[in-house]
Amino acid sequence: MVFFSDMGGLGKRLDWNGVTSILIHSLGEVSMFLFRIFLWSVLSFSLVSQVPWIQAQEPIQPIEEMTPKNRNLIELGKMLYFDPRLSKSGFISCNSCHNLSMGGSDNLQTSIGHNWTKGPINAPTVLNSSMNLAQFWDGRAKDLKEQAGGPIANPGEMAFTHELAVDVLESIPQYQTLFQQSFGEGGINIDRVTEAIAAFEETLVTPDSRFDRWLRGDESALTADELKGYQIFKHSGCVACHNGPAVGGASYQKMGVFEPYQTDNPAEGRAAVTGIDADRFMFKVPTLRNVELTYPYFHDGAVWTLEEAVDLMGRLQLGRSFKPHQNARIVAFLKTLTGRQPTFQIPVLPPSSNSTPRPKPFQ
User: Fold this and answer.
1) Mean pLDDT, to the nearest integer, of 89-115?
2) Which of 53, 140, 146, 169 has the highest Cβ tally under 10 A?
3) pTM score, whole prediction
């Protein structure tokens, strides 16, 4: 779960990880979690003078429209995002696991990689992913650019190499022209490939949800049950972790604070990156934006309904059991977080040349 996002000057001045790293050694996990809820409630009062009043009173802020900066780079990145020739099989693209017709995910428990390899973990949505503090569930990639290179070279995903991916792109005259238009001289390299993909992914934001319209003052945007669901969500402590514009994505939290989470998935969370045993089962808190579209839920993709997800999170993370009508109202609120989905013309990819390396889908 997430504790802070960008809250004007306050978010930049506060080194949350530094504060909690000092306290975590003297407080138990439950006490630490309750402390974070308390600290959030105290600090929220200082936000009033920094943002419009209708938003200052809430721990969630609206998603802002994205203004493209380099349209050539974004268009190139969009092509690369949809191009399956960056995989060994010539069949898998970024969009395969982060399908923009399906909430930026694949709606599978774990993704299917090269040669029908079963993925190790649930594919998080790419929508609003530029708001994450890091990428992947364990945060092993610092940003979208670093993340974009991972699947290409992963033998269980796209199963290519960066060198072969560049060879493919260099063999296609239209790509050579597009890279020159976007970057100038210097040719094609994996650094430019991942920069272009990241530039496109940064445009994949989903503003103008019904909840955003309510935050901006439209009292008719939510029904009575949806508003009651938000109040339960807020006052139960969910916002200690799910706050900010992305309603998540800005820090790590242990999965299973009041009760252990039972799973067969071997993922270790942050411990796999840091090597610190205390980081075991610490995962990046997922965004709740568009959550009704991004099932199944959690890092192991074990839960297929929002109702079950809310029930589990209440018991495991908050130590409380929501009554059926409370659960239904929270779910109703969560569905108001679905924003306007990215719309654009699907790119027509440039044709391969006679020298383009051929795909190897069955090797």
Assistant:
1) 98
2) 169
3) 0.85
